[in-house]
Amino acid sequence: MGFLAPWFLGGLALLGLPVYIHLLRQYKQTPMPFSSLMFFERRTQSSIKHRRLKYLLLFTLRCLFIFFLVLAFSRPFLSSSIAPGAVSGKRVVIALDNSFSMRLGDHFARAKKDALDTVQSLGDADRGQIVTFGGAAKLVTEMTADKQALRGAIEAIEPGDDASSYSELSRVLRSSAETLKTDISAEVFTDLQKSSWPASFADARLDAGTKLTVHSYADKAIPNFTVENVDAPRRVFDTKKVRTVATIAGFNTPDATRTVTLVANGKTLETKQVKMPANGRATVEFLTLDAPYGMTKCEVRIDSADAFPDDDRWLFAVERSDPKPALLVHTQNDVASPVYIRTAFESATEPAFTVDSQTPEQATGATLTKYAFVILSDTGPLPERLNDALDKYVQNGGSVLMALGKNAVAGAKLPASGIQVLNVRTLSLDHERALTVGQIDNSYSSFGGGQNWDGVEFFQMAKLVLPQDADTRVAARLSDGSPLLVDRKIGEGHVIIFASAFNNVANNLPLQPAWLPFIEQTTHEMGGMGSARANYRVGSYVDLRTVKEKNVPVEIIGPKGDRLLSLSESAKAQNFQFTSQGYYDIRRANGREEMAGVNPDRRESDFTLLTPDTVNLWKNTGTGSASATAGTSGGSANNTEQKSELWWWVLAFLVMLAIAEAVVGNQHLDSPGKEVAE
Fold first, then answer.
1. Neighbour-count burial for 431-441, b at 16+ CB within 10 Å, e otherwise
2. Positive or negative, the Cα torsion across 77, 83, 84, 87?
């Protein structure tokens, strides 16, 4: 016997109440008038008689009432252990594969019908549970004997666009067996794709006592052509300089020739023929993409002429715009840095910016708001008017990249940043070794490509005095520990400081392979372009905001035109998972609007089947009995524990005690010549 709320047993202290009523308050004296007490002898009266309990039956009834009242609140129960084999009826897990490949022919319709027949065949004592494993395995229902609920759950399941996983299914089956601690039957309705099998056989292991029955809807490998992938730019600035490469794959297919078409907003742009090797791959290259300004929904299609046309297209999205102007401020005698920076812009994968080179005096009258960002290349002290304009520009959301060299003034504060230059150090290579990059934060946008900085050497660098606050981030350090790249948030904008110059005198960075990706990634982030992708896979995630962008609403419009985030999610969600194929309009917290094409995992396009030997080995991992396993691993420790609550019986007895107490109490009150206990 146990108690679900044992802390209520402290109420047994109330048993003192009947004792107080019957013992301490039972003696009463009735004053009587008397003429004089002078002839009476003073004597102590014995109280033994008054300390005796009276009305024992009434006293007992009251004590029992309080005792059982406290017992009812404590919720007593009786526990009993039931061996797994003693559970009445079967426990059946009905697992339905609703992955992308089940869209082939009538596979999914047949699977649903067979699953419904399995529910109908359950006995009165049997219980069933519905599971789907198209993507992450999901428990659609609890283990229940309600056949109507099971049928309704199956009817509501539709084929999805994600990939099936037998390791996910096995994980859920193991969890069910562990929870129920009894033998279970798993009825699995699937197409037995080999691509769904895990890399490690142990991930598909079943617990003992799990009887696996596989209902397969494919008896042979089906030939299938598909668009496996498309490599396309995210943004287009010159439609005649766009390279789009499509990979076409054939699974279990013979030699063939396929027609591949590039489409933008439903309009055919170009069509090519490609020769496909047997069970192989081929690539098709399109060298133009005539997309209108703004967001464009693009796709690559093939004429597969096979039994599964659902994977004959690949969705992606591009954004066309004109290159944005960027302001480069440099001294009159600085010839090297404008050449290196302009070359880096023109050599970028996405030449998104044009360079407007000016001296500090020329830039004093410039309208900074028309520029995507500003680069200050070792300018030294700036005119006061330009300095004030940069302060305002950054406070209102602009970005400034500063490179520091021989013109930096020791002890001076850098424009719009609050960062001070301690000194500028020039190494004597006859006596000192050049400094290298000692530490890089790969999560920072400038280093997101994982470029190699091992060959970069620094001969001249500025020592900085940094504010110690959360708005200052050191993204890279030199080998002596001094900051190399610092990002400081000022107002709504950012100031990025590179503690060396952009030339081949202060360092050899412009001559190294790291130079082009560093400039491209840094300027794209400053210019508000980010690193969005043109397409995603179903089941993957997209980041919506940074840690600092809190409570700023984001919005996602799905393929059907519906909003996919609730009001609370739009203010708090850090990322979003794509659950189906189609185009998604993403409006981020930082104001950027993007479009993403989402495609099913192309592993689902390979209809090669699991071998019968593999399926049999899978089934054999569940041989044995759960009860036998429980007996060898601790006796009754793994038995199922049943709890039978008793508070209903206690409550019924309380009602009887209350009636009995009332009857007995009334008898004492009605008896003439007797004292009342109260």
1. eeeebebeebe
2. negative
Instruction: Give the residue among 524, 527, 486, 489 at the shortest CA–CA distance from 404.
Output: 486
DSSP state of 418: -
| Length of the chain, in residues | 678
Do 537 and 236 contact (CB within 8 A), yes or no? no
Q: What is the mean pLDDT of residues 457-471?
A: 91
Instruction: Identify which has the larger pLDDT, 471 or 9.
Output: 471
Residues 6+ positions from 68 with CB-CB distance below 8 Å: 650, 653, 654, 657
| Token pair in block for residue 520 | 């491209």
Tokens coding 629: 């396993």
Rounding to the nearest 10 degrees, give the CA dihedral for residues 331, 333, 334, 335.
140
d(CA 189, CA 217): 8
Contact predicate 536/597, CB 8 Å = yes
CA angle 57, 59, 63 (to 5 degrees): 115
CATH class of 85-221+607-635: alpha beta
- CATH code assigned to 535-599: 2.60.40
Q: Is 251 left (phi over 0), alpha (psi -120 to 50) or beta?
A: beta
The distance from CA 86 to its chain's CA centroid, rounded to whole angstroms, is: 41
**Positive or negative, the Cα torsion across 412, 415, 420, 423?**
negative
The answer regarding whether domain 224-321 maps to CATH 3.40.50.300 reads: no
Range from 229-238, 365-374, 481-490 carrying the lowest mean pLDDT:
229-238
d(Cα 285, Cα 231) in Å, to the nearest integer? 10
Q: Quote the pTM value.
A: 0.69
Per-residue model confidence (pLDDT) at position 352: 84
